[in-house]
Amino acid sequence: MPIRVLLVDDQPLLRTGFRMILEAEHDLAVIGEAGDGVQALDQVRALQPDVVLMDIRMPRMDGVEATRRITGPEKDGPAKVLVLTTFDLDEYVVEALRAGASGFLLKDAPAGELVQAIRVVAAGEAMLAPSVTRRLLDMYAGKLPSGEESVPDALSTLTEREVEVLKLVARGLSNAEVAADLFVSETTVKTHVGHVLTKLGLRDRVQAAVFAYESGLVRPGN
Predict the structure, then answer these.
(1) Is there a contact between 85 and 67 (Cβ–Cβ < 8 Å)?
(2) The CATH number, out of the four listed (2.60.40.10, 2.60.40.290, 1.10.10.10, 3.40.50.300), of the domain defined by the range 145-215
(3) What is the C-alpha to C-alpha distance for residues 143 and 67, in angstroms, rounded to an integer?
(4) Which residue of 36, 81, 140, 219 is most buried, as measured by CB atoms within 10 A?
């Protein structure tokens, strides 16, 4: 079965360009389009996409609020959200990640990167590109709430190795890169990541990275 994709962007030309790229792939199918967050919610309910390619700045309802509703407790389906942002990486992207997005991508990313990002998100993983994620978190982590009240207790549930893994995930390393850094197998890393997400009540690696910055475990620039 192909991955069902919903395109959400207020610029029709961009939606057309994304459609042309995605429909050239045998395992991807664009099942609908929306020009704002309100339309996106209607389309998600009606079409049940696997992945929503979501713009941030749109009329009526922006991508942050639409993401929150699509992935929240009262969600209408299993859709994952991949956020699109411009090159300047505005602070709303961080809010979208915290709202439930599984990752983000620059609008000027190469076609192959867009296709791969959709496949990664559809598979239940997070799109955590090191070069982009690190730059975004370095720029904006200082503006996020510190969460000082709950952080010490939350981190105390992790083992020393799990804390090490969380720090490396926050730096944007893949499982293979974490495994090489810690001299363990990739399977072991996956197990540690799973334990970290479960213990901290997080959904995926993106939320884990944001948590690490919010908690002060990792500081911008480190």
Answers:
(1) no
(2) 1.10.10.10
(3) 20
(4) 81
CA-based angle 86:55:25, to the nearest 5? 95
Please give the single-letter amino acid code of residue 212. A
Q: Helix, strand, or coil here: 217?
A: coil
Structural domain spans, the chain = 3-138, 145-215
Q: How confident is the model at residue 7 (pLDDT cuts 50, 70, 90)?
A: very high
Report field, pTM of the whole predicted structure over 0.85 = no
Write out pLDDT tens, residues 105-163: 878 888 988 898 899 888 877 776 555 566 666 665 555 554 444 444 778 889 999 99
Which pLDDT band holds residue 38 (cuts at 50, 70, 90)?
very high
What the block records as the tokens of 111 is 């076609």
Opening angle at CA 145, ends 144 and 149, nearest 5: 150
Count CB neighbours of 47 within 10 A: 16
> Residues 117, 111: contact at Cβ < 8 Å?
no
Distance (Å, rounded) from C-alpha 187 to C-alpha 184? 8
- Domain 3-138 = CATH 3.40.50.620: no
